[in-house]
Design goal:
By secondary structure, the protein is α/β, with parallel strands linked by helices. 30% of the residues lie in helices and 26% in strands. The strands form six sheets. It has a six-stranded mixed beta sheet with strand order 14-13-15-16-23-22.
């Protein structure tokens, strides 16, 4: 098990790297995280929903992503409540305190999912959540060292030296834990180190003398790991630097409080001829080539937030200008572009609403239903080219007037897209569209044409770029970690 001294210490990245290292050696390996909290999720082939990080780790392992890899997924709906997704399916909404009290009922589900993976794979690399040393939460632990002890798993703890105080964090993690949990820790890893390794001096040796736990390696800071971030608005990806005027397509994505699946824009960030920026205020909007209304876990309240910050008026003014940008809404952003949003049952909104006016820029209406759509979807675009994506939504879209379907599903007759008459305003329910290289290149070429420019096709393969980033992590693990010591920990679990 890989635990961390804090959230964002590098657990997800290290698990992905170790999965790739083991897969390179011909080991059948799978990732696992008993409970994840994230608004970035992905759909498995069986139509279940798991955290984006576990999906990426499965890609690193060369394994088919499945719901057993993330049996409990929490999707925040506010400051205190989350939708609970159990084995890929939503089972209701709970506030934090009642959920903590009910976690004992999930132990069998989590332990059973882990046991299933261990029976089918040579090695399972587990990821903890947050810190394993939250002593106020240990009684109901289903994801950290309590799980490790129940399953007989050794653990390593990752500390982020970039934050400062890494030795105190590692020492304190061991020191505050009950002895039976502290005994499960078999090693430390220091992450995101910059500069000369000699600067650490004998710090790791002193730490081992105090805790009895060896440091198994020091991983360098890897700049530019830009794909598949776990969650958090702070990690919404932007392009490296603003381009010179007119030198690149300018994409402005509107930042909303309950932003979900912001990884939709990662492929645009990766394109050398595109500049992506997240816009929180009307005075930051400028005059972009493309405005994106992204996915959200709270369509009604996030639309209200955009209105309050003047962003809807600002985009509307651009739309009415002589040189309007293309406007694209994805999932919740698509719902915002429509005529009405109806959530009479309070499926998504904190307060049930029979009808809330949308922006009215597309002739569609949204009705929220209890049953969630979670599926991989293949569609054809206006060039009759196939494009793949995935859907995660409670909202059902219906026509509220004449519209142009610029994407049509190959199976079924659901409304998954709409555009205005000149296709300057577009909406779709599909996430992941821009990961399809052919679709992305056609879209950008047409966008450039509308803006009076020529698109220089980069021929970027986004899938290959993602694999390259995973390989960078694995290469760093192979160079900087004591893999023999790590393998001995793996073998010790097999003998228990």
């Amino acid at each position: 098990m890989v635990c961390g001294t804090t959230s964002d210490a590098g657990k997800s990245t290290l698990v992905a790297g170790l999965c790739r290292v083991l897969a390179r050696r011909g080991v059948r390996v799978a990732p696992f995280k008993g409970q994840n909290m994230s608004l970035n999720s992905m759909v498995t082939s069986e139509g279940g929903e798991i955290g984006r990080a576990q999906w990426l780790q499965a890609v690193a392992a060369g394994a088919q992503p499945e719901v057993a890899m993330n049996p409990v997924l929490l999707k925040p709906m506010g400051e205190r409540a989350s939708q609970v997704v159990l084995l890929g399916r939503p089972v209701g909404v709970q506030e934090a305190a009642p959920y903590q009290a009910s976690k004992d009922a999930l132990v069998d589900v989590v332990d059973g999912a882990l046991a299933s993976l261990r029976a089918r794979f040579d090695v399972v690399v587990c990821e903890g959540a947050g810190s394993p040393a939250e002593i106020n939460l240990l009684e109901h632990d289903i994801v950290n060292l309590g799980l490790a002890v129940r399953a007989g798993l050794p653990a390593i703890v990752v500390g982020d030296i970039e934050r400062g105080g890494v030795f105190a964090h590692l020492f304190g993690t061991v020191g505050i834990l009950p002895e039976e949990l502290a005994r499960a820790i078999g090693g430390f890893v220091i992450n995101r180190f910059r500069g000369d390794r000699a600067l650490l001096s004998d710090g790791p040796a002193q730490l081992e003398a105090r805790t009895g736990v060896p440091t198994l390696g020091v991983l360098p800071f890897l700049d530019g790991l830009e794909f598949d971030a776990e969650d958090s608005l702070a990690r919404s990806r932007t392009s490296a630097a603003p381009p010179a005027p007119g030198s690149a397509l300018d994409v402005a994505a509107l930042l909303v409080p309950r932003l979900s699946n912001f990884t939709d824009l990662d492929p645009l960030v990766a394109e050398p001829g595109v500049h992506v920026r997240w816009v929180a205020r009307a005075d930051e909007l400028g005059h972009p080539d493309l405005v994106v209304l992204p996915g959200t876990r709270a369509t009604v309240s996030d639309l209200a937030s955009l209105r309050q910050r003047g962003l809807c008026d600002a985009v509307g003014a651009l739309r009415a200008s002589a040189d309007p940008p293309v406007i694209l809404g994805i999932c919740g952003g698509f719902q915002m572009l429509g005529v009405t949003i109806e959530d009479a049952g309070g499926v998504e909104a904190a307060v049930a609403s029979a009808s809330v006016p949308g922006l009215g820029w597309l002739p569609v209406r949204t009705v929220f239903e209890e049953e969630k759509v979670a599926r991989l979807t293949t569609a054809v675009d206006t060039a009759r080219c196939r494009v793949g994506g995935y859907e995660i939504r409670h909202g059902r879209m219906a026509a509220a007037g004449d519209h142009r379907a610029w994407l049509e599903p190959e199976d079924g007759d659901d409304l998954i897209s709409a555009g205005d008459e000149d296709e300057m305003v577009l909406g779709t329910t599909l996430h992941g569209l821009f990961e399809d290289d052919g679709f992305r290149h056609r879209f950008l070429a047409e966008l450039a044409g509308r803006r009076g420019r020529t698109w220089a096709d980069s021929s970027l393969s986004f899938a290959a770029a993602r694999q390259g980033q995973i390989d960078r992590i694995a290469d760093a693990c192979e160079e900087h970690l004591d893999l023999d010591a790590l393998w001995r920990l793996v073998e010790s679990a097999a003998l228990r």
